[in-house]
Amino acid sequence: MSKIKFWQEWDTHTRYPYLFLLLLGVLALALGVYYYFAGEASVFAWDKITDLQVVPVPVSEVPGLLERFTLSADGYLLFEQYDVALPGVNTVAAGLLLFILAICVAFYTAAISTMRQLPYFTGMLLLMLFLATFNFDLLDIFGGAGQTTLLVSILLFALSSYAFQAFFPNTGFGLRVLAMLGVVAVLALLLFTEAEFTADLITLHLVSYSSLGLLAATVLFLLWVSYENVNALLWINTQAKTPERRFSMWHFLLISVLYVSSLLLMYLRQVGYISAEVLPLNAYVILLLSTVTGFWGMRQREAYYGKLFPFRPTGAVLYLVFATMAFLSIGYAFATANDSLTLLYRNLIVYTHLAFGFGFLVYVMINFGRLLEQRLPVHKVVYEPKTFSLFSFFIMSLVICVVLIMRTQYRSYFQAQAGYYSYIGDLYRASGNDILAKRFYEESDIYDNGNVKANYSLSAMYRQQDERNREILLLKDALERRPNPKLYVRLANLYDEKQYFFEKLYVLQQGAEKFPESAEIYNNLALLYTQTSVQDSTEYYFNLAQEFGPGNDVVRSNRLAYYTRQAMLEPAKAVLEESRKGKYEALRSNQAILRQLLGMDPHGERFMPDSLEQVEDFTLFYNQTISSLSKSDTARLQPIDSYLNTPGNQIFYSDLLFLKGLVHHYNGLPREGRRVVENLALQMESQSGYYYNTLALWMLEEKNYRAAAAYFKQAKDRGYTQAYLSHGYALAIAHQPEAAVEALEEVAYTENEAAIAVAQELAALLRQDLDTVLTEGTDKEKLQYLLTYLPTLTQEQVNTLVNAVQEKDLKRHAVVTRVDYLLRKGRWKTAYDAIQEASAMQRPEGELRSALNLLQLKLWLYTEKYDVLLNRMDRLYLTDRDKRMQLYFKARVAEVRGRKEEAAARYEQAVKMLVYDEETLLAAANFFKKHAPEEEKAYNILLAGITYNPYAAELHKAYALESIEQGLYSYADQAAETLKDLVPPSEYATFIEKLEQKRQEVEARAENWQQ
Predict the structure, then answer these.
(1) Before 483, cis peptide (omega within 30)?
(2) Residue 67, SS3?
(3) Which of 244, 517, 566, 831 is the most exposed place for a label (fewest CB within 10 A)?
(4) 1 falls in which pLDDT band (50, 70, 90)?
């Protein structure tokens, strides 16, 4: 343990700075390892191209005349195709590198100040050369006056270090490091305060230009440790205490030859003599092993370099400084995805370790072969040669290394230049100088033709300038020399138009052949095939994408969207179940659509983001809101208003506004919902037909049939073909058979054969007389005839039609219709008996059961059975929509029993939720007219009533009378004029007499008050 933790015997002034530097080296190594795996992904990040596809989603179904009218909204399916984002500049990595490098410079300067004079000047010369690579003068610290900044930095380091070396040689190492850190801090303060650039740009400048110096330091370190692995093998073979436990020379020779042969195979693979990867060895792992063994090799070599400087602390610190700088240089190359430099470092590791490893093996065998045969501890005397000197070993190995490099046509030199120019290109791109950035990237491509870093950076610049053809040519050129899955995906995405289908297919298939485990390529291939009818290929590539990306929610999301669009319900349900715990937004958005289509529970999700910056945020919020309508949840209104007021959300404006109307309408605020959608119809002329059709369906829900017909007519006039048939039905439900027949004849204009056939059947029915329907009509036609002509039929005719219906479900509907007829005629006893008969036929729940129970509650109200009404109200089954009538019943009971405050509160609630119910508004208006005449509440209620229910005759009558009461004679006249088209002439004449009589009473009252 003492040999491993050799620093424990050092004094504190040396031990703690050394341990700090050791931790710094470990940090640099850890960052290098991290960026080895994550560097390319952070610079050339996967991006996604989102394709929104509309699928009609049912919001509600409205029954009418035995048909179901569906209100559908646009649901959004998200398909996500992989793309590659514009390259980023890793300023975080640059900042970390510069910070650690600055500390390394301080330690280096402190270490060389402990050397003797000659090696000190040599070390100082190396520092000056390294400082020169920073190109301080380009920062214009002193007005661009030559090399002033460089000279200042050199003077600061030289004077302070020389003072310790020459005048204060006994100063502790810790104090030297602190002094050098102070010099670094002063220099940093000068650079970052006086340079007229941002801190990020200054950092990038210093890191990018000093990369050559770091490269040189890394090469020196590689030479330093290149033979240490063979040395470690020697130690393993000879370190045992007794000869019997040591390995023989042949063991050492065999394992060393295997190691050198592996490096040779890697070299042959790099130069192209071998095409296949024979051994899965990683050059960087080899470097890491030699770095670790080099710690102890450095102690062993003290006998060799001890005349120049001691191991403690100089040699130990210098080793860690160079190791840390090597890790920084290699790690930063990965952090910036500089493939020219990563390949260079990989190659250099192989070249140096092969040449020096072989040379050291020869050195050991020549000098200590006989000792190895005798199983002596050769590792103790390995640096004390007798025949073949260390200098000869070094020269021979260096020559071999140069020969290896020459055999590659000096590729390492060109890669170094290419990597350097890529760094400078990044610097100028970050500064916004695209002209110089482009120039340096082009230089990089010249030195290392086809390198991904320069080519993709250039192609990104062409992308920003919309130069598609040049980007294609550049990517093709890069793929020929250095294939990369991201480049294949990016190139394929440039063929985004339909006429380039096969070009895109070819590029992706080529990429899949080169990179058979790329889930991203398979995903894009599957999406490409979704544009065709070849479902097998789509399924095949989706399976491959999921196989090689098992946790890839993008693939699951696309798969779910595809199955949903194709109405492939079983596989869609399987994916939905498999991904039900997924957190990915696009996946959850598609899940919400599928659940709505399947009629499933919305899963209780409440996604309400602060903003809609991403398309997925909008679609998830929108789809979930559509799925959660009718849940008495208005919490989404506030975020909708916030989104509408955000300038960046104009693209979603109409969808958000329509969503707001839906939330209002289906959560108890129908008046607000109607106002929103009416305004939207006025603003969005191209879609106004759809919005008017929506309003018409809402009116059908509210049993406001004449208003529904009017809105369907507006939708028709704006070219919304689905409204033609609906218009005819709405008129029939509103008991206007003649107008309905005319509207049904117009369905022929739609050229929709199915709709025309339905319209012709209904029109033919409405033209027939009662006797013909009874003798020739089907049960459905009899019930339709009953519903259409109900107000004009006698009770006997109603009974005849009801009794003529035999089919069970239609019979249930017919008997409930008879109850409604009897209540409207005021025949309470007969209605009670009809309710008993109808109740026995109905199912326990459902729309008909709710309608019948609602009629029962009304009967109790009309016959003043208030206790029964209150006791049974909560126990009878009612749909959510019919439950709103409970407010009206409770208000009436409270009014009758003299609880004025309760009645007023319930009436105010009721008129908000039941704005289309004529009976509720009349009762509320009468209450407030009687109990709060001075507040004009009655007038406002009636005004809102005729505004939102313009075809309610009784509301117009009440409004006209109340307008006279308020002295608003012109408004009363307008209401009377409207009423003329809503009631028969005889009824209208009677009302006009009543209105005139009311006018005279008000005028007389006014005259009496004035007297």
Answers:
(1) no
(2) strand
(3) 244
(4) very low
